[in-house]
Backbone:
């Protein structure tokens, strides 16, 4: 079997940490093996640490990042519940779709794509929603929103509203403090800043959310009562729910070990420095950044494609000539934006310089 | 990192094929990379071949085996639909739970655990159900049911009823002919006879089922319209739905390549021979088999625990002294049955002899 090597600088997956690959290929353990249960418990504890939460119900769900969004709404929305969704990109749009499937009365607060969430507008959208939902790091635009400010505003008004945050592209790449931000429900994906192959959705659920959860939600696979009985155990021990994806969890555990050893502050600084250099270099090439200044994610840079350039052709040439993958834009920006990720193991200056050099060659532009 | 090696002879996961492990650790590709799309298409084609189906909608779902069951009901059940479920073990019970969450009027046909599904009783349960569901290989008891006979009977009566078959523990270990059996919807898991780590649910859906699918089902993640747009593509190319678990799919592809090279007839014969030897040897040790004679799965052997033996203690000793995992019984049989799997890469005579030797030593029984 001939392997093909890629440098994955799109919006995810990114190249895994070497520790994650070693964990993935390690001898397989059974999902009820005491050794595996130890790995699972450590994984949950490390996820709590990265998120800055004490939530007992913090675990990797058995699906890709999107299943985290599904689990969030499936376990909290009752038909007729008002859910305010801050939409400033594709994943906000998706939240509206998912929440509506569970019967939510969705109040959608649209923002211009590329701009962060406006806390005042979100708050003004409805006086007493059951849930306020927003995306921390919009993978579709490269924009960071201030979840702490949103949480403080929501909490100041009422204790009845749950705050839901999409952290797919932030967890493992930024310092987070979910509990003091007032986040009740959050999820992520392994294939972005966590530096693991796709297939798991880290998930956390506060005690406040637990008290108001939906009993026997429509989706058996994501029923938190049943999942909790396996992950947390109980008086009668751990109850089998479904076979956990043991290899992916061992891989996530290994990557989290690497991140914790390096220290989340150092990892975040590594993401910041690599992203800053990339964004500087992109502008040196005479290209324009898409996301609003002051709200740009270092781990995901969105670039406006010049009018005279064929967006897809450049991506194809990066892939064929240099083995580098970058992403198209999302939605209406498919042909007019590129998305470049420097996430997890790829949050490095050499990756930034490599991409700038290859892109400069293809565009026939030198840095000014 | 010190690795722990286990011989996984429980009801799954089993030790992966070496080809599957190599595929899992291969350099990661993006989910939209043309090279990966080639791997995905080949995987779907090989799944069709193993299942004996021409269904265009045949794909690995992004979750463990149970998500296949969820997708099956989520995309076919409308509130009030009559679903007849043949229950002869834990997974039949689970089908009733899952179908009911989507609003099905469940007609449950209970069988004694350890016995195969009785086609006449299932047929007599309701004159015109929307769906008849049964488990091909009951992982909880080690029993095979005749899905071909059930399909013929269902089809002979009406063209309006869909046949749903749980193939979690059969696909990759037995010769199957889903299309001529009349199966409309089937799912499996990768961690049993397919010899891959857990995390994917192979799934197939007939054109007849497609015509009667639920539009915009409650579960966004499992919406076959959206999944199909990525897996099958369309006039506008492939639409992104969620990030496919690329490493697991590459691993499944490698295992399927191995199975197809060996030939499914030869693979099935390997399972048959290993299971036959194990079941013979277990009886030589003076132990009794649980599943009804003539309906025993070779890949999963259920054994009655002798009255004077502590079931859990024996399993613990197998694990600690020999690194061998076997399973407890399911449900009410937790303490009175052992489940021993010889699946996928473990469907070998040496594994059967190893288990018999270790079990004989622990029980202090020699073969007679």
Residues:
């Amino acid at each position: 079997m001939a392997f093909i090597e890629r440098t994955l600088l799109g919006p995810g997956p990114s190249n895994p940490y070497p520790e994650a690959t070693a964990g993935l290929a390690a001898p397989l353990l059974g999902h009820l093996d005491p050794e595996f249960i130890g790995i699972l418990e450590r994984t949950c504890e490390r996820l709590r640490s990265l998120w800055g939460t004490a939530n007992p119900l913090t675990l990797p769900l058995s699906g890709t990042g999107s299943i985290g969004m599904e689990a969030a709404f499936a376990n909290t929305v009752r038909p007729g519940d008002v859910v305010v969704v801050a939409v400033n990109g594709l994943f906000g749009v998706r939240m509206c779709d998912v929440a509506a499937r569970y019967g939510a009365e969705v109040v959608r607060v649209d923002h211009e794509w590329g701009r962060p969430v406006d806390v005042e507008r979100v708050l003004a959208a409805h006086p007493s929603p059951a849930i306020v939902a927003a995306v921390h790091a919009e993978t579709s635009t490269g924009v960071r929103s201030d979840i702490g400010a949103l949480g403080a505003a929501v909490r100041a008004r009422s204790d009845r509203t749950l705050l839901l945050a999409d952290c797919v592209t932030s967890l493992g790449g930024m310092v987070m403090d979910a509990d003091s931000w007032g986040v009740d429900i959050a999820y992520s994906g392994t294939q972005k800043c966590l530096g693991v192959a796709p297939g798991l959705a880290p998930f956390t659920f506060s005690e406040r959310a637990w008290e108001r959860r939906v009993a026997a939600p429509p989706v058996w696979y994501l029923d938190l009562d049943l999942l909790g009985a396996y992950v947390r155990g109980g008086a009668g021990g751990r109850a089998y729910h479904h076979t956990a994806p043991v290899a992916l969890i061992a891989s996530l555990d290994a990557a989290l070990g690497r991140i914790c050893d390096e220290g989340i502050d150092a990892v975040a600084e590594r993401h910041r420095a690599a992203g800053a250099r990339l964004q500087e270099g992109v502008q040196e090439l005479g290209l324009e950044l898409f996301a609003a200044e002051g709200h740009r994610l270092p781990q995901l840079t969105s670039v406006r494609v010049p009018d005279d350039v064929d967006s897809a052709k450049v991506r194809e040439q990066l892939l064929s000539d240099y083995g580098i993958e970058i992403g198209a834009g999302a939605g209406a920006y498919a042909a007019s934006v590129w998305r470049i990720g420097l996430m997890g193991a790829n949050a490095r200056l050499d990756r930034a310089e490599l991409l700038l050099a290859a892109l400069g060659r293809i565009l026939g532009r030198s840095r000014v």
